[in-house]
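Can anyone check this?
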Amino acid sequence: MFNTKADRAENLKRLGCLISILCFAAVAAGFLAPLDFSRGARADEFLRKGKTAYEAKDFETAAKDFMSAAKLGNAEAQFMLGYCCKAGIGIGKNEEEAKRWFHKAAKQGNADAQFEYASCIEWGPVAEWDGKEIFKWYSKAAEQGHIEAMYALYSCYISGLNGKPDWKQAIHWLRKAAEQGYLRAQIRLGDEYRMGHGLGVPPDGEKAFYWYSKAAEQGDSSGQCRIGKCYEEGIGVEQDYAEALKWFRTAADQDDYDAQFEIGKCYHEGKGVGKDMAEAVKWYRLAAEQGSPDAKKALKELNLAE
């Protein structure tokens, strides 16, 4: 008689009430913490407000909101707070605090934080330097597609930070960063192909020219200057002094002192332009004023060193 559908429903109802009473008693007695189902939502709201304040350049408010969200466990907020601490944006500059928050976010899988935490260890106090930790966190960030971490991982493999140098992996990560448009990687990969530094990459002028061109297309003066050198020396393209000078001028427009030196040399040697020592000296001096050792040497050889 107690096995009817109505009886079972009534029993379940009573059981639910009993569980609720026991949970309430446990919370009141301090044996069970109350569940906070709004924790994540509150963290997200603090993060949103922090981003809004940051964009409005209200950095102090932004840092406070990031702090609130970070304390609630939001990984992105922890990264942003670490960045604020590192740069002293809206909060006192504190590299140790920055490192601590980067680490918290890194452990939650935030790629930006993983990269920054590795950087903190790599460039921080010598006593805290740890090659395995540096390699570990750069690897985690790179595997998530963090471009700067890919380039950093290239350096790690070159230096053997994980045990011994691994040229194959070094080039693998360098190429991945270059393919995603990272300028430093494009220039470096071009250099590897141009000179063949023993990283398992044989010299290849056409590939060097290709990667320099990718950097030059982004307006990078180093890439533009290297394109000029390719035309000057016939690396991957037909030798053309006039075209070389054109690229040197493009780079020099951005105050690239290597390009300024190369223009001086073009006038000095009469390559791609009529020989003109006055112009050569002018460009050598421009480059020397910016610290070009080659330009300083050229002026010294002309007995014009200042």
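Reply from J.R.: I decoded it. The chain has 16 helices and no strands.
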